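User
New here, explain this?
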Amino acid sequence: MLFAVFCNAGKLVLEDVLQFINGAPYFASMTAVIVHFADSTEGDMPMPRAHACSSELILPTVHRSYRDFRSAMTSAFELSRQGFGVA
């Protein structure tokens, strides 16, 4: 479902979502993604976070509109295409 929601713009593919959550564009084995919701924020644009080792996704709940939420998610997925070590 998460993939379907954010890929409607045609820019993202499943591998982008997996790269963000998992640190790689695939799952090495059958892995469940654990999703948490958090209302704490850092900075002006609360971004989603992920813990790749445990396949955890932390989604911010503080966005005032779906547009803001989608923008943060899309940015995070696109930035993660570059992999680890990118600041």
In short: The first helix runs from residue 2 to 6. Residues 4 and 10 are 10 Å apart (CA to CA). Residues 2-6+30-82 form one domain.
